[in-house]
Amino acid sequence: MLKIKKTHALAAVLAVCLCLSLFVLAADEEYDSTVDPLISLSYLERRLAEQKTAYEDEITALENRTAELTAEIESLKSTIDLLKKQISDIAVGAVGMGYEVIEMQKGQVLYASGDKGIEIILRSGTATVVSPFANQGISDNTIGTDLQKGTAIGLNHLLLIPRGGDGRGIKITSTSAFVMVRGEYTIGK
Predict the structure, then answer these.
(1) Nearest-angstrom CA–CA distance, 59 and 77
(2) 1-33 pLDDT, tens per residue?
(3) 116 and 180 share a domain?
């Protein structure tokens, strides 16, 4: 009987150990270290240092990009200022490119000057072509011909002298005349 009791006691102890083993194994299978990790201070410090380095690298990259964009903005501002100046010059030039009405007296000669040509319209009076060239005169754009030296100029005809400073112009033959001019000119005798 004592032997049976010992056997039962041993079986009971083995059963309890087996149950505890199964409980520990079951508890171990349910444990997930990603949900409830156990970490050391050195691991935590290493991970924080890695994140700090990554953030510092990102901040440095953003600062560099900000500097590039600031330089690009300054360049674009310079371009805008240049374009504004060009537009202003064009606007001033457009106003300055209008015709100027001048009154001339008999014997006066209107010459093209500067490096560009001029446009001339005789509004009243009479005038003739002045040219130092035998085969180059003044272009009459109204009738589409080249007026040679000494040729009479028609009223309200658009005349073109293609370049200044070469001695071409118009000479007033009436007592007085009104002339419209666009471009640089000089008046002489």
Answers:
(1) 26
(2) 666 777 767 777 777 766 666 666 555 555 556
(3) yes
